[in-house]
Structure to design on (485 residues):
């Protein structure tokens, strides 16, 4: 078992209380993966103070010099890819292939922002008068707080941290307690790459006290949060009270529309990957399939065949294509939603059961699950499940499909499977979502493109990822210079 301390001011330190917590492997709960500090308000305030002390020196460096450290971190991450991927799988449960992809993605994110460091600057603007210079500068904010979820335990910290650091901010990160190892490993890599002490700090522990301190501490200039709507809404209010800059990215209820003209084999393949891949624990996972009635039965049969082919098991084992739920609470939540769906009139046409035979006895394993006969009023059609559960809704035509797709209060990712270019483009125009995929899985994002939701999926203030990510982590200053005299 690994043991981790908090990372504050460049030092590894224990929580004042002396208390720790331990995470079990969700594929085999008899294995303790790592223990962490059970920290609270005091440790978080200390981390903010350390970040504040380091800020001026870091901000004074050029973005190019900062970018060099990020590029170096990218190389170090890549060199540790297999070690980190295995640890990620042990702690969070996703398959080794999925974990390897996530670590590689994180290395790529640092490489991207390392290169972007050459472009971070302002703009010159024509002045009304001759011999006058009017220009903008991009400046860091100060200490930035990051609060991240467990489902992408290295990619999400990376996609917040890299733009925050290259912009010149000092950072305090609170990772989700279900999977903090990747963040702490990231701290080691950044220290080795030459990041000055105190520029990046990590505090593990209770969400309410560690996260609450980041939200309310007057020295935290801005906070970027990814997680559930319930917690995001609460943190947003705390930030609003002191008028701090906020970026909140929350869950979705992502639709894939399957039109009658679609290649149904392709549709079934895309829904199986986006609905059951990553054990359905992706914010962009397909959880609603909205299919035209004339092909609903044929599509469902093909999706069932895809679900049957999924090999559920320990993600470290070769051949396994779907790992366990992350913990007992999420596991139970999945079955609660299946029960509610059944009670509301849905039919489980595949899956719905726990898998506990043989090697699966000690993990949170379940079958990929398909529920048909779902109507928009049912809970399974409107609330995020965050597991491998796909609801199938049959509709008359494209217009009804679009209305159903838009009939929820969240809007993160949305896809459509069709050969009809006009309908595909109308969908792209009319769907209320931050990301639209045409003949593609609803999951999977290009790191160089903007990402974020609409409606209650996001505060919709600043996008994450892509070159524009630095906008949240920096502010524009406008400079007027008169050299006519
Ligand atoms: P969560 O909201 O339970 O926790 C998120 C983070 O907030 C954790 O670090 C947690 O410790 C912390 N936290 C908990 N209570 C807090 C409080 N009172 N104050 C401050 N911080 C607190 O979410 P989760 O279960 O870790 O993640 C799953 C959710 O994240 C899903 O809803 C998923 O859709 C969403 N998600 C969204 C995106 C996106 O980019 N939009 C990406 C991944 C996950």
């Amino acid at each position: 078992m690994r043991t981790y301390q908090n990372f504050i001011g460049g030092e590894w330190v224990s929580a004042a209380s002396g208390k720790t917590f331990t995470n079990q492997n969700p594929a085999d709960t008899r294995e303790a993966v790592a223990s962490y500090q059970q920290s609270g308000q005091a440790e978080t305030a200390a981390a903010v103070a350390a970040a504040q002390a380091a800020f001026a020196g870091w901000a004074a460096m050029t973005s190019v010099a900062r970018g060099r450290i990020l590029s170096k971190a990218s190389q170090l991450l890549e060199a540790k890819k297999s070690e980190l991927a295995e640890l990620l799988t042990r702690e969070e449960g996703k398959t080794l292939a999925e974990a390897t992809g996530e670590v590689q993605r994180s290395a790529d994110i640092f490489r991207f922002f390392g290169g972007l460091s050459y472009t971070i600057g302002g703009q010159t603007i024509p002045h009304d008068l001759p011999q006058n210079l009017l220009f903008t500068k991009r400046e860091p904010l100060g200490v930035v707080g990051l609060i991240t979820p467990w489902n992408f335990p290295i990619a999400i910290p990376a996609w917040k941290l890299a733009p925050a650091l290259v912009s010149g901010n000092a950072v305090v990160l609170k990772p989700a307690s279900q999977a903090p190892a990747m963040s702490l490993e990231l701290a080691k890599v950044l220290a080795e790459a030459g990041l000055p002490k105190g520029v990046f700090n990590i505090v593990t522990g209770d969400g309410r006290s560690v996260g609450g301190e980041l939200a309310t501490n007057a020295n935290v200039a801005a906070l970027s949060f990814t997680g559930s709507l319930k917690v995001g809404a609460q943190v947003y209010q705390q930030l609003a009270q002191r008028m701090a800059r906020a970026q909140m990215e929350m869950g979705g209820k992502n639709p894939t529309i399957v039109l009658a003209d679609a290649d149904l084999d392709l549709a079934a393949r895309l829904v199986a990957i986006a609905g059951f891949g990553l054990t359905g624990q992706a914010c962009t996972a397909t959880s609603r399939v909205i299919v035209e009635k004339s092909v609903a039965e044929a599509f469902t049969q093909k999706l069932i065949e895809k679900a049957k082919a999924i090999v559920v098991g320990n993600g470290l084992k070769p051949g396994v294509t779907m790992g366990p739920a992350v913990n007992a609470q999420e596991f139970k939540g999945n079955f609660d939603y299946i029960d509610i769906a059944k009670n509301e009139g849905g039919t489980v046409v595949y899956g719905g059961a726990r898998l506990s035979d043989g090697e699966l006895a000690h993990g949170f394993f379940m079958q990929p699950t398909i529920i048909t006969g779902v109507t928009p009023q049912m809970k399974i059609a409107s609330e995020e499940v965050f597991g491998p559960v796909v609801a199938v809704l049959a509709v008359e035509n494209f217009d009804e499909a679009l209305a159903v797709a838009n009939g929820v209060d969240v809007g993160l990712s949305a896809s459509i499977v069709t050969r009809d270019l006009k309908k595909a483009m109308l969908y792209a125009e009319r769907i209320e979502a931050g990301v639209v995929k045409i003949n593609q899985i609803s999951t999977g994002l290009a790191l160089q493109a903007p990402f974020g939701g609409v409606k209650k999926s996001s505060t919709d203030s600043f996008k994450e990822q892509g070159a524009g990510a630095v906008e949240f982590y920096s502010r524009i200053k406008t400079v007027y210079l008169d050299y006519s005299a």
Observations:
- The first helix runs from residue 41 to 60.
